[in-house]
Design goal:
alpha+beta, six-stranded mixed beta sheet, about 40% helix
């Protein structure tokens, strides 16, 4: 996912926050993603979990806010919920039903009817329930503005009040919002344009600064499988029948092993990715690594497949090293 940072100068200031000291960019930062469909993160030091990123993206598109489906992938997600049952600020819920209607359907209809429309704003911030609220979970991303540019492609601009550079802005946010972007473009029937994010408060926590600095030092040496032609994006929707696609997203979150998926993205990408991950998670299976990698062979999206293989390979290396040293490895 090629990106351009559009702010200058790159200066930072140290600030205190409720979660500890941070280094904050001195000015708001605008980032432009030139190829948002190239969303899979290939960066060993970042060690992003592609299985979770993929599932969470679909969970958002399904309009969900319940904890357990995502906690099944990453148990730590429960710590970001105030009650352990739901997420107050879940983006998918805000998009699909929180305000009493499906905002995505309204925006799709409007831009299909009038490609020149400049009024299509997807809201995530609710002043009635968010302003002044105490709790762990408030939307960081506030709005997404959709418009069809001069070239006929759908552009998306996301406004963000505050986010962490590594784990949020250039990690989860880049994946989830580019997923939304592509869905909207395919539903409207136009190409994917540029994805821009304006971060009012972009920062890095000092508690993890040493780790971040180590990651940052490798940036210029990160291989790009997209640019090298080793992988390519797989369309998330095989047409523009978006209600049917959303129905399958909801079915997938309810039961990823259900029968009856028709869209190639679910049959050939999401389902085998999910199954590979939970084969790996079964610690009672002595062959879990080999079997998970074998199941990944059925994934037709070369980018998600490669990321999944690399992620599992890192865990296999750690597992082997721990066993060689007589240490239990989770």
């Amino acid at each position: 996912m090629a990106l351009d940072a559009l702010t200058q100068p790159w200066t930072s200031v140290e600030r205190e926050t409720r979660n500890g000291p941070v280094l904050q960019f001195a000015e708001p930062v605008t980032t432009a993603y030139r190829k948002p469909e190239e969303r899979v993160i290939f960066w060993p030091q970042r060690d992003a979990n592609p299985f979770f990123h993929l599932f969470e993206s679909i969970w958002m598109m399904a309009g969900r806010n319940d904890v357990e489906p995502v906690a099944a992938y990453v148990a730590n997600m429960r710590n970001y919920s105030d009650d352990g049952l739901s997420f107050h600020g879940a983006y998918g819920r805000r998009w699909r039903g929180y305000f009493g209607f499906d905002q995505l359907a309204v925006i799709i209809k409007a831009l299909r009817k009038d490609p020149t429309c400049r009024r299509q704003v997807l809201s995530m911030w609710d002043a009635h329930t968010d302003l002044g609220r105490e709790g762990k979970d408030l939307p960081c991303n506030l709005q997404a503005l959709f418009s069809i540019g001069w070239g006929g492609a759908l552009d998306m601009l996301v406004t963000n009040r505050s986010n962490d550079l590594v784990w949020g802005a250039y990690g989860a946010n880049a994946v989830h919002f580019s997923f939304l972007h592509e869905f909207m473009a395919r539903a409207i029937g136009v190409p994917v344009g540029r994805y821009r994010q304006v971060s009012n408060n972009l920062h890095v926590y000092k508690a993890t600064l040493a780790q971040v600095e180590g990651i940052a030092a490798t940036v210029s040496n990160i291989p790009d499988p997209y640019a090298a032609g080793e992988v390519s994006p797989f369309p998330i929707m095989g047409g523009n029948d978006y209600p049917a696609w959303l129905g399958e997203a909801e079915m997938f979150v309810e039961d990823p092993n259900a029968m009856g998926f028709t869209d190639p993205f679910f049959r050939k990408v999401a389902v085998p990715m999910h199954q590979a991950y939970f084969i790996f998670k079964n610690k009672e299976n002595p062959h879990r690594f080999d079997e998970a990698l074998e199941r990944l062979q059925d994934v037709k999206a070369t980018d998600w497949k490669m990321a999944g293989k690399e992620w599992l390979a890192r865990r296999l290396a750690n597992f082997t090293k721990a066993n060689d040293n007589g240490v239990a490895y989770d």
